[in-house]
């Protein structure tokens, strides 16, 4: 079986995982199944690997804190005639261990070996490490 790869994206406008969950709650899904869609300009060249088990990992205030499983990619034609990629995700937001990431534009691939582990269900309410501590730990190789 071919391997898979994740996508890493900044969660602009959210200060916490709760903000992302609240946004999902207050903005209805366009799908009857409740799936969520994030539209981005670039289409993944590694589409098959993304769809073979990848998730969209969200960076919130400089730290990866959660993910959503990618279900499919949809072609979206903007009013400006530019083709965009709709990343359709499972509605469940899965909290992860905190992993610091410096700011970047667009999105990046994230190899499964570099992805933070999911938090056990019982720890879903745990707060993230402070951003400066998470950054310091990441710089010395500890997550």
Outline the secondary-structure elements.
Layout: E1 6-10, H1 17-26, E2 36-40, H2 47-51, E3 55-60, E4 63-77, E5 83-89, E6 94-100, E7 107-110, H3 131-139
Parallel strand pairs: 1-3
Antiparallel strand pairs: 1-7, 2-5, 3-4, 4-5, 4-6
Keyword list:
alpha+beta; single chain; 17% helix; globular; 143 residues; seven-stranded mixed sheet
> Residue ranges: pLDDT <50 for 5 or more in a row?
none
Instruction: Please report which band the strand proportion falls in: under 5%, 5-15%, 15-25%, 25-35%, 35-45% or over 45%.
Output: 25-35%
Assembly context of the chains: single chain
The major beta sheet can be summarized as: 7 strands, mixed
Total domains, how many? 1
For the termini, the CA-CA separation is 29 Å
Indicate the mean pLDDT. 87
Our count of helices gives: 3
- Category from helices, strands and their pairing: alpha+beta
SSE sequence, one letter per element = EHEHEEEEEH
Instruction: Tell me the total number of β-strands.
Output: 7
Radius of gyration: 15 Å
- Judging from the principal axes of the Cα atoms, what is the shape? globular
Percent of residues in helices? 10-25%
What can you tell me about this protein's structure?
It is a single chain. The protein is an alpha+beta fold. The chain has one domain (6-139). Helix content is 17%, strand content 34%. It is built from three helices and seven strands. It has helices at 17-26, 47-51, 131-139; strands at 6-10, 36-40, 55-60, 63-77, 83-89, 94-100, 107-110. Strands 1, 2, 3, 4, 5, 6 and 7 form a seven-stranded mixed sheet that branches. The relative contact order is 0.23.
